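$ fold --in a.seq
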Amino acid sequence: MVIKAENIVKKYKELNALDHFNMEVKEGEILGLLGPNGCGKTTAINCILSLLKFDEGDIQIFGQKMTPTSYNIKKQIGLVPQEVAVFENLTVEENIDYFCGLYIEDKNIRREYVKEVIDFVGLTEYKKFYPKKLSGGLKRRLNIACGISHKPKLIFLDEPTVAVDAQSRNFILEGIKRLNKEGSTIIYTTHYLEEAEMLCDRIIIMDRGKSLVTGTVEELKSITSTREKIIAGFENPEEDISDKIKSIPHVLDVGKAHGEYIINFENGTNNLSNLLDFIKDNDLTYTKLYSQLPSLNDVFLELTGKELRE
């Protein structure tokens, strides 16, 4: 086990930022840490890394107790924070060399590592640029390079693709897969659930400082009450027919967006047939009709609620 965090409690006066939070990370996996804004993800990471004191619980990394002075553990860890944290007065190459130098003293080894990571994140032609000359996507790549330049065994990636274009996002995600294939264990936080579904071997969904569920994507999907979702659009319906649709067998709830009905069923059999019978009996003409299996987003919303968070 690479990380074992047990019953971590972190209090800010009356607020329990972490409420007996638990997390286990296995060697060689990509673990997704998901949750709404303010759920405690960043607090959990900071406590695990001993950047923040916690009130109760125990944390072990690589089988050893983690403390603020566990430098032998920390040098095996890479952190890529959500906010870009580089020096504006240093070039791309100088920034990476500085952060690598915090862990690697030998200049020859460091020079090799810096070159490798510049190639890895695709910044070779920008290595003499200052950060202010880089696009948002390139700055994100530089941020990642600074965090992984010393070849850590364990990497924390906190929202690494936020506010970047599609091409940069794809480049970053492919890079994360390569890091993992080369042996790095990765903890990945994101608000893009499709990224987590694509990347992660296992996922923890947390809220209000607690770890709610842990499992593979398929295991998490199996716990949601929704077994099938059907999206239906109708040709000029005279009225809102949500209440009528609820009379169809096994309907859990009905939502409406952009003139289409989103119908959640509690099982996955005969639902389309029953809906077609309903359409025929009510003399409706459909313009769109298709079925979806539950997604990670469905699980997330069911566990954490649909209300907006700050």
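$ fold --in b.seq
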Amino acid sequence: MLDLLAQSPIAFVIFLTGLLLSITIHEFSHCFVTDRLGDPTPRMKGRLTLNPLAHLDPLGALALILTGFGWGKAAPYDPYNLKEPIRDTALIAAAGPASNLLIATVLSLLLKFGIGGDFVALFTIQLIYINVTLALFNLIPIYPLDGGKIMRALLPYQASLEYEDIMERYGTAILIMMIFPWVGGESAVQGLLTPAINLVLKIFI
């Protein structure tokens, strides 16, 4: 993203604005589903809002600016307030990526119907790219990403406990290692996600 800032400050602002909006909706969706499943924790902590400031994570924001991949503040929840803690945790986790794919779908329809001029189309394409990337990035099965919680729900009980223990200890460190560039200036996340992102973008654009 810093390269984009040097090349075109306007494009950087557009991209950053779209990214901020997308992350906000992503995190709000987690909190909304948590609230609907009977856990009032997000509401009590002031997270059931579309105010971007409520959902920004300092480390995630820094990673975002430096690498183009980042995350928002983890949505708070209390598993003891959930009827089926493992299943409901997975549903809460899935709500974020699902919201981004829904946004991308709606924007894709607007783009195909030619709503708006060239500038609107450019902004729409940027938003589609951002939301597809955000959805797929968060589905990587590593804590603190949503994919880690979804993976835990899919594993057998004992394996899920072991997986959770490893991810809680080392997940963030593994994620940071994966998003920062190594050999050839490309990060492990870029190598992993770029083919998948391009495939999904062919459907939406």
